[in-house]
Amino acid sequence: MPVVPASIIAPIREEFLRLLPVRRDSHPLGCHNPRISDAVVFDRLVLALVSGMGYERVADQACSATTIRRRRRRRRDEWIKVGVARDLVLAVLRAYDRMVGLELEDLIADGCITKAPSGGECAGKSPVDRGKQGLKRSQLTDGYGIPVVTVPAGANTRDHTLLPETLDTFTELAEHLDHAPQHPALSLDAGYDDQPVYTDLAEREITPRVTKRGTKTPIQTDGRWVVERTNSWMNNFGKLRRNTERRCACIEFFLALAAAIITVRSLIRRAWYTHRWDTRPASPRIR
Predict the structure, then answer these.
(1) Distance between CA 68 and CA 75 in Å, rounded?
(2) What's residue 198's pLDDT?
(3) Which of 91, 102, 104, 202 is the most exposed place for a label (fewest CB within 10 A)?
(4) What is the C-alpha to C-alpha distance for residues 236 and 93, in angstroms, rounded to an integer?
């Protein structure tokens, strides 16, 4: 049984491989060892993302751990260098926007802390796990909960200090979408109730919806619950729930891949009621 349903992973794999640059073998005599297919390596990386297993455990006779990440033949680092994961997220968001429509007029942001036992560039002492190494994700979603921007940082980083970088990334991303809101609204919890946040949002012409400190406001009142659901979706991936990568570039790669899977899954579920296609699943409830 595939780790991700074929109806979800097949279009992602096809688009991912299409975005890869054409590889030219510069060796004058060629290579005596045939190059393993990019599709095979991609499936192993998806397995590592979903299960959280190490590369040695997801490797088999068809693809070794050496090919995936180690030494000169590491395929993962080649893909990170060309930025194919960012291009994949953009392509998926544009497809979702055309078929369903991104609700970018109402944005929601929040932070989520997970474990990072191996430490690394993006790890820090977790304030909710007795000072152990942890990772924080600054998550920005649209009004439905589609992950638009995810920024990793140390677990000891305050939420409001990550907001400018998150919004800068969103601004760059919105330039490549078919339409972007001019004056969106942004819902935040009480952790963002700080004057620098209001000043920054005013300069960006974003309407703030920030819960005041000391007030007990139900999460359902301002729509903030959708970002909590998105954080739960992201934590379903073992590699994100317990991160063992030490480089930020690798973490960002897996975050982008997880966001693409979540977006395509939501796209199929919502388009199931309004569209028909040859590989349409029998039910919108895709596990």
Answers:
(1) 5
(2) 95
(3) 202
(4) 20
- Residue keyed to tokens 């909960």: 145
- Contacts for 273 with CB less than 8 Å, ≥ 6 apart: 284
pLDDT number for residue 72: 47
Q: Please give the full DSSP string across the chain, using - where no structure is assigned.
A: --SS-HHHHHHHHHHHHHHSPPP----TT--SSPPPPHHHHHHHHHHHHHH---HHHH--SSS-HHHHTSGGG-HHHHHHHHTHHHHHHHHHHHHHHHHT---TTEEEEEEEEEE-TT--TT-EE-TTTTT-EEEEEEEEE-TT--EEEEEEEETTS-HHHHHHHHHHHHHHHHTTSS---SS-EEEE-GGG-SHHHHHHHHHTT-EEEEPPTT----TTTTTTHHHHHHHHHHHTSHHHHB----SHHHHHHHHHHHHHHHHHHHHHHHHTTT---TT--SSS---
Residue 138 and residue 252: Cα distance in Å, rounded?
12
